[in-house]
């Protein structure tokens, strides 16, 4: 029987970077391997302590990033500084990409909260050594585990106020709240900050779906131990499970499409509108040439989104375009599973996005930007790079790739 391996984040007590590392090690990631991979960052001033601990009689793994005595844990780094550290490391391309994706989510949230551009944002807590270790460590663990799909529960955020570099702020902290846009959250009376910006960014980056359903066979349960004592155990629980591949073959996801036809707008504005829609929850947004009444050439804007994002998409269309009305209808969509593998060519490494259906790889797409870069650097045709990438996949991945 074809099966899929599931990782389920049960965030009943929130999620933070150190809790995630603890849960991953408790699940089976080798602690010494994690330490050796983190050394590739060439970051100094810390050591990783991994040990067994418990909260309210629940035993799991605690991971502490211990800073040197004279190390300032509030280093101020911007996104460029962090990107330079990660890009200059010896980590593999997948880990680098995942790490930067998590940091980018935090950067966008901080920029919006403070009314600045991403380049102007100087991270405080998030730019410190311990936070960099938490985020890059999360990417290393994700890359190490043989997981087909990651799910996450609604996230408990806590209540009250939290003290941070910007002063005393309400829970969830503004950056955390921004990162968790369109994500189901809970605040069930537990006092304190249960979900940090780092934890929120990890969950949003990794999880393909937020659901209370646990429709899988549990293979293993693990616990990442937090730092505080609350009314409930301060732990992150994760399940590794197994799901029958066949159970997903006929599942369709609910979605809506919002459309409008426009024949009187400056064409330069369309790029801005599409970009804004995609940054605000749209799963897809596209333009179609059409003919309206009186044979007028026009453009149809179509937005595919979840029902809960429909009002935001409508607001953007009304605010940013000349239209006077929109239409909305429900649709169902079905997606192939996606995986990313990295192959080596004579000119460098390239990621390949795989489209998987019923346990079989049916689509193969090399990452365009990486191929373009190699073609330009080596002055060879882009098509030749594509051929090399596909050949490398057939030679090195096809027989070993497990679904």
Strand content: 25-35%
Number of helices: 11
Task: Give the number of DSSP strands.
Answer: 22
Mean pLDDT: 88
Oligomeric organization of the protein chains: single chain
Strand arrangement across the biggest beta sheet: 13-6-1-15-14
| Rough outline | globular
Taking pLDDT < 50 over at least 5 consecutive residues as the criterion, the unreliable ranges are: 399-403
Notes on the protein architecture:
The structure is a single chain. α3 runs antiparallel to α4 and α4 crosses α7. The C terminus is likely disordered. The chain is built from 11 helices and 22 strands. The protein is an alpha+beta fold.
Summarize the model shown.
The chain is of the alpha+beta class and 403 residues long. The chain is built from eleven helices and 22 strands. It has three domains: 3-248, no CATH class; 253-333, Transcriptional regulatory protein pf0864 domain like (Alpha-Beta Plaits, 2-Layer Sandwich); 337-396, Ubiquitin-like (UB roll) (Roll), CATH 3.10.20.300.
SSE layout and pairings?
Elements: E1 3-10, H1 17-27, H2 31-39, E2 46-55, E3 58-67, E4 77-78, H3 79-87, H4 93-114, E5 122-123, H5 129-144, E6 149-152, E7 155-156, E8 158-159, E9 161-164, E10 167-170, H6 174-179, E11 185-186, E12 192-193, H7 197-206, E13 209-210, E14 217-225, E15 235-244, E16 253-262, H8 269-279, E17 284-291, E18 297-305, H9 310-320, E19 327-333, E20 337-345, E21 348-357, E22 360-366, H10 368-378, H11 382-396
Parallel strand pairs: 1-6, 6-13, 7-11
Antiparallel strand pairs: 1-15, 2-3, 4-5, 8-12, 9-10, 14-15, 16-18, 16-19, 17-18, 20-21, 21-22
Helix pairs in contact: 1-5, 3-4, 4-5, 4-7, 8-9, 10-11
């Amino acid at each position: 029987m074809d099966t899929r391996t599931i990782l389920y984040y049960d965030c009943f007590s929130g999620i933070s970077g150190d809790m995630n590392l603890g849960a991953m090690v408790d699940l089976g990631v080798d602690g010494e391997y994690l330490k050796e991979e983190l050394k590739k960052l060439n970051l100094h001033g810390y050591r990783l302590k991994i040990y067994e601990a418990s909260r309210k009689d629940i035993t799991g793994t605690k991971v502490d990033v211990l800073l040197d005595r004279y190390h300032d844990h509030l280093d101020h780094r911007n996104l460029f500084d962090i990107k330079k550290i990660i890009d200059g490391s010896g980590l593999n391309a997948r880990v680098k990409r995942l790490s930067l994706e998590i940091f980018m989510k935090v950067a966008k949230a901080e920029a919006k909260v403070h009314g600045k551009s991403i380049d102007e944002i100087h991270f405080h807590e998030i730019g410190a050594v311990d936070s960099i270790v938490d985020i890059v460590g999360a990417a290393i663990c994700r890359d190490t585990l043989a997981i087909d799909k990651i799910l996450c529960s609604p996230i408990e955020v806590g209540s009250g106020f939290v003290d941070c570099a910007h002063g005393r702020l309400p829970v969830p902290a503004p950056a955390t709240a921004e990162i968790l846009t369109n994500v189901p959250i809970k605040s069930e009376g537990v006092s304190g900050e249960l979900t940090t910006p780092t934890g929120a960014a990890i969950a949003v980056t990794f999880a393909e779906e937020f659901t209370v359903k646990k429709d899988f066979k549990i293979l293993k349960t693990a616990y990442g131990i937090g730092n505080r004592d609350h009314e409930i155990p301060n732990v992150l629980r994760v399940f590794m499970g197994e799901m029958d591949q066949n159970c997903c073959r006929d599942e369709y996801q609910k979605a809506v499409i919002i459309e409008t036809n426009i024949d009187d707008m400056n064409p330069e504005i369309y790029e801005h509108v599409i970009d804004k829609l995609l940054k605000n929850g749209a799963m897809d947004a596209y333009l179609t040439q059409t003919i309206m009444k009186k044979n007028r050439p026009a453009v149809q804007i179509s937005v595919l989104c979840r029902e809960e994002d429909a009002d935001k998409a409508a607001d953007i269309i009304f605010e940013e375009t000349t239209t006077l009305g929109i239409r909305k209808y429900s649709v169902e969509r079905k997606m192939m599973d996606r995986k990313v593998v990295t192959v080596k060519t004579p000119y460098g490494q390239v990621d390949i996005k795989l489209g998987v259906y019923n346990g079989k790889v049916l689509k193969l797409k090399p990452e365009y930007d990486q191929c373009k870069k190699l073609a330009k650097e080596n002055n060879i045709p882009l098509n030749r790079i594509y051929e090399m990438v596909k050949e490398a996949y057939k030679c090195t991945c096809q027989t070993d790739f497990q679904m």
